[in-house]
Design the sequence.
């Protein structure tokens, strides 16, 4: 004996159709986001269903970007009393997305670099320490810690594990030596004082290729 | 047995939170360009710079300007484009051994010319470079020498 199909109640049938339409909408949204995720990251995310349903993601964070001294390439534009010189560094991005740096924040103009006898920065230079002082500071630093300086061209460090991360960069003429710098600071390598911060955003962007150059003029 | 329509409706309902969860996960992987970026920089995040050496001039030469004028022109090779001044040191002697070097003049280019010199003496020259008001190099690595003879006075090169 065959079971007889139970006809759907009219009310239940309408509710089922309602949810079916919502499923289609949800699938379409997910499909669009998955296929266009790269471009979509640059605009606000739409989370939720139906007209008027949108929300912004949680406040995003970029963690532990590391900026390190590097001897290669060696600074070819070197410091001299009353002059400026290049700073070379590498930028490491441990985040799973590219990070674009648009500005850096500097320590004060009385935060001095320590001098070393070689580019390995292992043995300090007698008579040329940050406490001497060496007279070497970040160019355009001011009496206020955290003064911000915009890069001429933004530097984009690729996501963790990708090529050009770490990114090597030369900041042209971004170190300054006082005219009163001691003679002991001649033929010396300097570990620049730590930056106090950077201004950056994360998300899809074309990574900058190493080695990069940049500068700021104020 | 006919499938329970209530069960079917329930399975579709789960599609919505799954979609939300998926979108949320995608957001964590590649967050939006929000204005609320929080950025941390590791400690000791600086870079490296280097300074020039306070090098000495090289190739110092002393030559007679005129065989009768008893003046000597000293010239040399610049060690760096960052030199701001040169100081010329002169030593004299009637023998082949120079006496004590003393400062005799300064220049901002790579040559210097003496005034009228006494005859019958040998003249030696060394040059020191200055880089600003604090840095000075050691004496030049070479010494220029010239002689103004006392007999038949003329400049003579050694």
Sequence:
């Amino acid at each position: 004996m065959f079971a007889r199909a139970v006809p759907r109640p009219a009310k239940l049938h309408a509710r089922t159709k309602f949810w079916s339409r919502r499923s289609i909408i949800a699938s379409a949204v997910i499909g669009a986001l998955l296929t266009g995720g790269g471009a979509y990251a640059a605009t606000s995310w739409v989370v939720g269903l139906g007209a008027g349903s949108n929300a912004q993601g949680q406040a995003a964070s970029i963690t532990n970007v590391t900026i390190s001294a590097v001897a290669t390439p060696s600074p070819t534009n070197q410091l001299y009393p009353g002059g400026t010189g290049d700073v070379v560094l590498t930028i490491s991005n441990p985040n799973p997305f590219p990070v674009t740096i648009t500005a850096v924040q500097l320590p004060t103009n009385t935060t001095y670099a320590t001098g070393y006898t070689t580019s390995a920065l292992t043995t300090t230079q007698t008579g040329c320490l940050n406490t001497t002082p060496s007279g070497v500071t970040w160019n355009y630093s001011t009496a206020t810690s955290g003064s911000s300086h915009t890069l001429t061209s933004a530097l984009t460090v690729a996501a963790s594990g990708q090529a050009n991360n770490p990114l090597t960069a030369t900041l042209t003429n971004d170190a300054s030596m006082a005219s009163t710098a001691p003679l002991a600071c001649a033929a010396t390598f300097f570990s620049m004082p730590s930056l106090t911060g950077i201004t950056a955003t994360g998300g899809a962007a074309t990574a900058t290729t190493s080695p990069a150059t940049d500068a700021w003029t104020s | 047995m006919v499938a329970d329509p209530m069960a079917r409706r329930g399975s579709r309902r789960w599609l919505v939170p799954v979609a939300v969860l998926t979108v949320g996960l995608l957001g964590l992987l590649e967050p939006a360009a929000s204005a609320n970026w929080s950025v941390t920089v590791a400690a000791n995040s600086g870079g490296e710079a280097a300074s020039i050496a306070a090098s000495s001039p090289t190739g110092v030469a002393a030559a007679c300007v005129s065989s009768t004028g008893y003046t000597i022109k000293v010239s040399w090779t610049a060690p760096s484009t960052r030199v701001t001044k040169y100081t010329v040191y002169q030593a004299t002697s009637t023998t082949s051994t120079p006496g004590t070097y003393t400062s005799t003049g300064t220049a901002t280019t790579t040559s210097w010319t003496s005034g009228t010199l006494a005859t019958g003496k040998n003249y030696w020259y060394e040059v020191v470079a200055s880089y600003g008001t604090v840095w000075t190099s050691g004496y030049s690595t070479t010494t220029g020498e010239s002689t103004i003879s006392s007999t038949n006075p003329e400049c003579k090169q050694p």
